[in-house]
Amino acid sequence: MQTSDFDYPLPDSAIAQTPVEPRDSSRLLVLRRDSGALEHRIFREIGEYLRPGDLLVLNRTRVIPARLYARKATGGRVELLLLRRQDDLTWQCLVGGKGLTVGKTIRVEDGPSAEIVGLLNGSERLVRFDDPIEPYFPKAGHVPLPPYIHEKLTDPERYQTVYAREPGSAAAPTAGLHFTPRLLGELQAQGVGLAYVTLHVGLDTFAPVTEEKPKEHKIHTEWCELPAETAEAINRTRASGGRIVAVGTTSVRTLETAAQRAALNTDHWSLITAFTGPTSLFILPGYKFKVVDAMITNFHLPKSTLIMLVSAFAGRETLLDAYQTAIREGYRFYSFGDAMLIL
């Protein structure tokens, strides 16, 4: 298996620059894994493919305004991208600017002063703020849109799911952007359950795999939580014959991580148990899914860990054939793009 096996050509015109309105008017490509058959629908019609007793698992993380601008003592401008919080004052950051060595101080525009306290890989630094940075987000923070989006986002809430609750992500779990409160209510009314996990998305999710062989790639670690009530809902759904439908690759990673942890507890009968902690699960073709029966996902970047994960679920050739059809049919790709339902 080579990284090049997950490459595909995509014209720039296919990369969505703005979200559609309303959210559930995006297109939906339905892929059946057993036959490779495709159907072209609108996202609000997704209920036609879900059954009473199925369970949607959604990631309720909320994107923080993680891009900050600062000035060095010399007046030079610095850009900070908050990646992970280490403690109340210290964050792992991606920095843009020269001479940001240990001991250098900066001042965030409309925010506190900070000091570089550690050197990490490349342009990553540990930055300690004089005060907790979160209260300054409303004035100092900016939503860090992916690098392939060049249009300004007029409404930052469009880069949040309607059920986002737990701040911590540097990027949105984009498969969930298509849901509206009305659509979620309609699905519940037809007997589809809703359950929630949290995985805080890091910017590494957009990074391509640069190693020739995917197995040599060290995947990013992200924090996730699967609460007890969600574990109970999953076990109850599976016991009654319902399907577990993961909304997005972040939900998939959380579910499968929790299932692996539960499998280590040989005295426990459950398919899945509550879990909180880091995950570095790298799902590649050949992986045996333990929980996920169906998946809702967007169209992903070539040679990314995300397209590898979806290939593991749908089959690489089947997925790439579907992508080519989507390109020919004018589907919109990436974060603000259209969706797939893989059954």
Which helices and strands, and how do they pair?
Elements: E1 27-31, E2 38-42, E3 55-59, E4 61-63, E5 67-72, E6 77-85, E7 90-96, E8 105-108, E9 113-119, E10 124-129, H1 137-140, E11 166-169, H2 181-189, E12 193-199, E13 222-226, H3 228-239, E14 244-247, H4 249-264, E15 275-279, E16 294-298, H5 305-314, H6 316-328, E17 339-342
Parallel strand pairs: 1-17, 3-12, 3-14, 4-11, 14-16
Antiparallel strand pairs: 1-2, 5-6, 5-8, 6-7, 7-10, 8-9, 9-10, 12-13, 13-15, 16-17
Count of domain modules: 2
CA(first)-CA(last) distance? 24 Å
The name CATH uses for the topology of the largest domain is QueA-like
Give the strand order of the largest sheet, numbering strands 1, 2, ... along the chain: 2-1-17-16-14-3-12-13-15
Overall helicity: 10-25%
The second-level CATH architecture of the largest domain is 3-Layer(aba) Sandwich
DSSP summary: helix tally: 6
Number of strands: 17
Average pLDDT rating:
93
Strand content: 25-35%
Indicate the CATH class of the largest domain: Alpha Beta
Structural class category: alpha/beta
Give helix and strand order, one letter per element, not per position. Answer: EEEEEEEEEEHEHEEHEHEEHHE
**Globular, elongated, flat, extended or rod-shaped: what is the shape?**
globular
Radius of gyration (Å): 20 Å
The low-confidence runs, each spanning 5 or more residues with pLDDT under 50, are none
Largest sheet features: 9 strands, mixed
CATH level-four homologous superfamily name of the largest domain: QueA-like
